[in-house]
Please model this.
Amino acid sequence: MNARQPAKVSFKEQMLQAREDAIVLTVNRLLAEKGFDAMTVDEVAASVGIAKASLYKHFPSKEDLAAAAMVRVMRRAQDFLRSLPAEQKPAERLRAVARWTMALQLAGEMPSLPSQNSTLRTTLLANREYTDGLMEVSDTLGGWIEQAQAEGVINPKLPALAVLYTLYARACDPVLEFLKLGAQHTDEQIIDLVISTCFEGLNAR
Amino acid sequence: MNARQPAKVSFKEQMLQAREDAIVLTVNRLLAEKGFDAMTVDEVAASVGIAKASLYKHFPSKEDLAAAAMVRVMRRAQDFLRSLPAEQKPAERLRAVARWTMALQLAGEMPSLPSQNSTLRTTLLANREYTDGLMEVSDTLGGWIEQAQAEGVINPKLPALAVLYTLYARACDPVLEFLKLGAQHTDEQIIDLVISTCFEGLNAR
DNA sequence: GTCTATAATCAGATAGAC
DNA sequence: GTCTATCTGATTATAGAC
Model:
């Protein structure tokens, strides 16, 4: 069911879609709060307010629940990339993207997965919506990175892939959580700090 | 049982200590490989080559197993900090420490814990050896950071705590694993890359 | 202290009525 | 599709013999 398709949807189907949206939203939040392993299906069902068996009518496994949340965040990322103004320079876009992911994390909306979990990896890599989205995002960012390097703004000596991975890693950087727990800075200040260390580094200039 | 105490240890006690060392070593490796949740006590016992019940004679719980591994890595960190030559400048020491933690991660010896697990946090914070070690390391690094900022090498506008957290976060940066999976670079090159992005940033200079 | 065998619990998934 | 009740397997932890 794709939101872009013109609708001839019955009331029943709308209710169904709304419920699935509620499920994915809850899963997204729980994944951000506690991570995949600590999140239980019972918890999801209770939080949504339906029985666990009903959940399994919508999604065949816990892994698929997580995958749905990842697809959602990937879609949001694609939408954000497309929303950036055409006149913005590549380097500024990259900063904007980093900012956006960090804000998402501080808002408790960045789902976090264990990179080692094999069954989860399998499910995710089997999900075309996810892999396609990831590839589009990576291609887009990769293009901007190379442009920014050609302009001499991003360090041209760094492999573009290393820059891309670094941006991805900053999206789930634990430094954000640490600084938030310290309660010494506003969310805005925290993001500014991490953006600065990410692009300008720890060294003085 | 502390290694620094002069010994009047019987042969039996030596055997016991050796076995506990083997256990902690195994736990350390498994924690680095799969993380706390995915590591099972059965697995640890099998890998060490003893029965699970025997394991529980040495360590009262899975959390205590992990804590022992964390204490070990903290001791190694303290030893490394002390080993740095006296003539080295603070900023160079910080780089050396970051290098050391990254090498540890690439070698599969950096135990990784879920930051959210509450029972684990409780056990860890109740462990004086761990908390004392963490405080000593933080104090030492914090001092170096402030000196390096006073010398104008590390950016003085950054809060020292933010710099400290950033260094801690780089010790378990997923970028290292990503780049290693790509198989395009040697471990040495990967570390150089991440050290560079950490201290000099992504931007060109 | 080490072992085998087992308890106890928890979580993912399903059966079957409505 | 939704529910209650249940199954199944995995995992932490322990009992009790030696």
Summary: Residues 40-42, 52-53, 56, 60-62 of chain A lie near DNA strand C (CB under 10 Å from a C1'). Residues 11-38 of chain A form the longest helix (28 residues).
